[in-house]
Amino acid sequence: MHPARHHARRPSVPRTYITARELEVLRLAANGNSNQQIGRHLGVSTEAVNSRMRSAIRKLRVRDRTHAVAVALRIGLLGSDEVAVPEGANRGYGDARSRPLDQTMAGMRAEDPHPPVQPA
Question: Is CB count within 10 Å lower at the N or C end of the chain?
Fold first, then answer.
């Protein structure tokens, strides 16, 4: 038997869809897990998580993991119900979307380390 027959052939057209494993990595990242935590949860190495994340980033044509999660949510790969909202999230700020940006900025406490980014 020819030695090349022992190796799986690569498809002529590379996959462009997100695999189930890549989607699981994105889902866990969307819930605030580090790559190390994701690896422990899935029972794989951090390098395997990094590889899956890079693959998802490439397929989604985005810059980083945050952008990948945002795009996955936007195009429906992830549902908003799959992302846990921490207890007390946005407490004290009310619904910022219902107020103009200048009122939202004025209502922020000076000690808040993460002020909202104003649109360009």
Answer: C
The CATH fold of domain 15-82: Arc Repressor Mutant, subunit A (1.10.10)
3-state secondary structure of 70: helix
105 vs 62: CA distance, rounded Å: 29
Segment 17-56, tens digit of pLDDT: 999 999 999 999 999 999 999 999 999 999 999 999 999 9
Extract the tokens encoding 102: 């200048």
